[in-house]
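Design review, sub-item: ligand-bound model
Attendees: FS, YL, KQ
YL presented the inputs for the pyridoxal-5'-phosphate complex:
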Amino acid sequence: MKVTENFLNLQPYKPGKPISETKRELGLQEVIKLASNESPIGPSPAALEAIRANASEVYRYPDGSCFEMRRALMEYFGVEADQLIFGNGSDELVDILCQVYLEPGEAILTSQGAFSAYYISATSVRAKTVYTSLTADSRFDLEAMALELQKNPKIKIVFLPNPNNPTGTYFTDSEFEKFMQVAGNKDVFVVLDEAYVEFVRAKDYPSGQGFQRRFKNVLLLRTMSKVFGLAGLRVGLMIAPPEVIDLMNRVRKPFNINSLAQVAVTAAVQDRAHIEKVKKLTWEGLDFYYSALKGMNLDFLPSQGNFVLFDTGRNGEEVYQALLREGVILRPVTSYGFPRHLRMSVGLPEENRAAIVALKKVLS
Ligand SMILES: Cc1ncc(COP(=O)(O)O)c(C=O)c1O
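KQ shared the predicted structure:
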């Protein structure tokens, strides 16, 4: 059966290499994974307790409306019930948005070096992806994006991960304000993907919810996979106007959020102390990485996420393979346009130290 070029050229999303696979393939006993920007200490103990307490109920279908989880998240975000839709990971919501709002031949706009899920979702509905270049310091060029938006009427959705993965860079409040002066009047959606928002330390980071109150076409994506430590349960959410949520709900699978995920998220968002603990650990880990990388004379991009992108000074794939043999999994980023770089997530302090020891060894 013939398929179009779009699909033939599509490269599948390459996740971080699993620990079990690395142990199996390389015959290793101990492996440290710092490849998927996961929480090093996992979810709130209250979330784990909720999973245990509800495990015997898994023979029943989950609550398709996610009543309790929705209430907890309404309170967390200060939004109404009809402004929220949940996805099996926020990546499912990118899919649904593209299904509802893109016609074949229309386009999304994002930046080179941006998280790749948007391109895959757009391609799956036969839409195109328009990319602007990164700036010299590997940040999104919002001015170029605004120009592109003005000249290309095919663009219907703009995807802006802020901070971005894998660069860890962000755009500022004033840069986004200027962008919205153009995009705010257009018949396009501007999706702010704030997967890493909790880790941001920059004072001039734009408040997505603040912009959303002023511009009806700003949609927000959040995830339970990062600071909440629930990546394996797959829960993401979108905050959007009720009419958008209503249309997206028509496409969403009725039971896309499983019952254990629902009780875990409900407990996790209420444990503010745990969230603060993860943030503190992340910032300490990042600061440790910065000083270690400086000590090794390796360039890196200051990060607003829970990971850092650094320049190995040589072929990144080769350094990645050498690190695997040392039992450390990082993430190669050649497909994002960084053939010499690797992305390293913040882990536990002892994991961070071990990763730096291994890096020194393979680079020496
Ligand atoms: C920018 C960005 N958005 C979204 C996600 C995915 O989140 P989820 O696990 O909710 O699908 C990631 C995961 O790495 C990410 O880096």
